[in-house]
Amino acid sequence: LSVFGFEKMNEIRVRLAKDDADISAARQLCQEWFDWHWENYPDDWPTESDPEWPTDIEHPMGSKVFQTILKELPERHKRPDGGILIAYLNSVPAGCVMYSKAGPGVAEFHRMFVSVGARGNSLGQKLLEGMF
Q: Are 114 and 124 in contact (CB under 8 A)?
């Protein structure tokens, strides 16, 4: 953006989720990712011809399982063995990443997503840096 001939800088903050508003933002971003994924990759949806995941109810990316995951986010990624980071772009939640302990000295990250409209601001990189 340009204001009076000067480029306006975007304010970017990345922080650990600390309250219900942050958890709500993480859930909303995860739901946005879920909707984006199925809109862009509809062939990933489970079908009856797939013997491993014959129904949406059992599929790890099925809507019912995913809603359970969203509900359980705080427990799945609680401190000190995990965390939920939220990236804010101009004070608006725009990205998230979650991590949890996978074993001694090993962590894995989950559900990293940057909103489509916020891409191009290095939020993904900043989220990973914050996690590490």
A: yes
Say if CB 128 and CB 110 are below 8 A apart.
no
Picking from 94, 88, 91, the residue whose alpha carbon sits closest to that of residue 117 is 94
Exposed/middle/buried for residue 117 (C-beta within 10 Å: 0-12, 13-18, 19+): exposed
| In contact, 95 and 102? CB cutoff 8 Å | no
| Element of type H or E holding 74 | helix 73-76
Where the chain has pLDDT below 50, the residues are 1-2
Residue 64: its pLDDT value, please?
82
| Residue 46, preceding peptide bond in cis (omega within 30° of 0) | no
Distance CA 42, CA 120 (A): 25
- The reported pTM is 0.82
Show the tokens assigned to 97: 């990443």
Residue 103's SS3 state is strand
39-59: per-residue pLDDT in tens? 998 887 666 666 665 555 666
